[in-house]
């Protein structure tokens, strides 16, 4: 997983759309974006960067290309969260959970439910 690179905000936005649509032409990606819509060339450039980084690939239809993700959302999420934990919580997942529990005022009952879910998944 070390071969992955962190996505920029614009790259992440395009990837979120590709993960949702499964496959898309640049015009389809733009349609999914909020107003004001970026220029076609801007999105096309981001798509080519994502392809160079190994996140997406394409199928050619003459001069047009249909793009699809080759890195799953789950794989990238795991990579991103591991980097977050390393960078901000000294590699400690308990520190991460503690931080979010305090910040979001999670009560003991919710934490106990979370613990029960984790224990069930390990079985």
TrEMBL record:
Q: Does the keyword Transcription regulation apply?
A: yes
Q: Which UniProt keywords apply?
A: DNA-binding, Transcription, Transcription regulation
Entry annotated with the keyword ATP-binding:
no
- Top-level taxon: Bacteria
Q: Known Pfam families for this protein?
A: Penicillinase_R (PF03965)
Q: Which family does it belong to?
A: Belongs to the BlaI transcriptional regulatory family.
UniProt protein name: BlaI/MecI/CopY family transcriptional regulator
For this protein's source organism, the top of the classification is:
Bacteria, Pseudomonadati, Bacteroidota, Cytophagia, Cytophagales
């Amino acid at each position: 997983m070390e071969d992955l690179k962190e996505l920029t905000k614009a790259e992440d936005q395009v990837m979120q759309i590709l993960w949702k649509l499964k496959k898309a032409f640049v015009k389809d990606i733009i349609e999914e974006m909020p107003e004001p819509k970026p220029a076609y060339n801007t999105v096309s450039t981001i798509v080519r960067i994502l392809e160079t980084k190994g996140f997406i690939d394409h199928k050619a239809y003459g001069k047009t290309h249909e793009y699809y993700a080759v890195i799953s959302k789950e794989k990238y999420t795991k990579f991103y969260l591991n980097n977050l934990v390393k960078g901000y919580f000294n590699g400690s997942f308990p520190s991460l959970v503690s931080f979010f529990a305090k910040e979001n005022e999670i009560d003991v009952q919710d934490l106990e439910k979370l613990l029960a879910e984790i224990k069930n998944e390990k079985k």
